[in-house]
Design a protein that fits this description.
By secondary structure, the chain is α+β, with helices and mostly antiparallel strands. It has helices at residues 4-33, 36-42, and strands at residues 47-48, 51-52, 62-66, 73-78, 84-89.
Length: 92
Amino acid sequence: MGALLPIAVGGIFIFSGMSIMRNKLRQLRLFETKTYSEYIKLNPQQIRNGRVACNRCQSSDVRTKALMNKTYHREHYCGQCGATLYYSPEGV
């Protein structure tokens, strides 16, 4: 019975670490695939007068916000409907 507690605690730590890594990898994959160039390739009709427009509501009100948690990326989203259009790395 006494040896069961350290095994359970160790299992919780291992499971937590694996869960965090899975979420980070999913987030990195999203940042690598949902880029400006990919958005333009999939939505060429959404470029108007040199500006990007939303592929859902066609609004040209595209806003940017910095993502936290040491991702060093920005999210570009529609100011009207809130849809995420693409991500870009900070400093680019």
